[in-house]
Amino acid sequence: MGLLAGIALLVVCELKAARKYPITANALDGAGVAVLFATFFSAHALWQLMPVVPTFFAMALVAATAVVLAIRRDSLFIALLGLVGGFATPFMLSSALDRPLSLFGYLVILNVGLAWVAYRKGWPLLTTLSVAFTTIHQWMWVVRFLNASQIGVALAVFLVFPILAFAGLILARRHDSKLDEQFEQIAVAAAVLPMLFAAYLAMIPEFGARYGLLFSFLFLMVAGLTAVAIWRGPQKLHLFGAGSTLFVFAVWLISSYVASWPGIVVFMALFILFFLLVPEIAKRVGRPLEGKAEHSVLAAPGLLFVFPALVAIEPKCSAP
């Protein structure tokens, strides 16, 4: 009954007569999408009529249908229903089993589809909500399932979505300065949020022990923020990366230091050279750092605090 009702609503709204009343038809399209989501979820969760995998694909298909209808009808309302249903699907069908590749592979596809609709129609709200819901899913997975053996998977997960955000920004410029600025701000937020994950890893000794992965991830994020800051701005992104680097090093030394001598010195040298060279690189490409961004070079001497900290906590450093 639920499937028949939902499909009937969508079919009726495709009739020529229905399109004479676009507001009513769009509302009924939205109702059909909502009925289908509720039906598939209930069939699995309440009545055990469908296994989890077919239910997952069925709900993903409903989300894709909502995206197609949103484009055809130029309806942000239908697109938002598809977004909410699409992001709710993994949550509603979650289990005690950990399947990060399936979960985040699905979220990548969902983000790409919604970003395409958002850029095509000029709906920055879609990308804003996509970033917010993706971040919620990432942290829910971290809290429920993350352990030391999965650090590599987690770092890849937190890297791929900022890359997608900026790839979409590059490929889909609308030549509308106001909309471009809004999409750019959303992409910047998507790039800044993973820095919180680096700080989280540094705080937990179990994760901080994998310092090679932690500081490699941190360097990739800082280098990416710097590239964006020089290429298109805002330049404060580089300053944010510099401050985050000092913070993560400090937190790691206080909370998670393990016998890392002399490997940690290699990472420290890498960051120091990076922050010393960035101002010169920016000048050579014709985009010199200005204002507060110029102060980011102070992160290089600032990182020298690691040496006295190592002397205090690592016996091998007393006579290197």
Question: What does this protein structure show overall?
Answer:
It is a single chain. The protein is mostly helical and 320 residues long. The protein has 15 helices and no strands. Helix 4 packs antiparallel against helix 5 (100-121), helix 7 packs antiparallel against helix 8 and helix 9 runs parallel beside helix 12 (236-255). The longest helix is centred in the N-terminal third of the chain and has 24 residues, at 22-45.
List keywords for this structure.
mainly alpha; 320 residues; elongated; 15 helices; 76% helix
Brief overview, please?
This protein is mainly α. The protein contains 15 helices and no strands.
Structural class: mainly alpha
Spans where pLDDT lies below 50 across 5 or more residues = none
Q: Radius of gyration in whole Å, from Cα?
A: 24 Å
Largest sheet: none
Average pLDDT rating: 85
Order of helices and strands: HHHHHHHHHHHHHHH
User: What's the helical proportion of residues?
Assistant: over 70%
Q: State the total count of DSSP E strands.
A: 0
- Beta-strand percentage range: under 5%
> Per the principal axes of the C-alpha atoms, what is the gross shape?
elongated
Per DSSP, the total helix count is 15
| Distance N to C terminus | 76 Å
Helices and strands in order:
Blueprint: H1 2-12, H2 22-45, H3 52-73, H4 76-92, H5 100-121, H6 124-145, H7 151-171, H8 177-192, H9 194-203, H10 205-208, H11 211-231, H12 236-255, H13 263-284, H14 299-302, H15 306-313
Helix pairs in contact: 1-2, 2-3, 2-4, 3-4, 3-5, 4-5, 4-6, 5-6, 5-7, 6-8, 7-8, 7-11, 9-11, 9-12, 11-12, 11-13
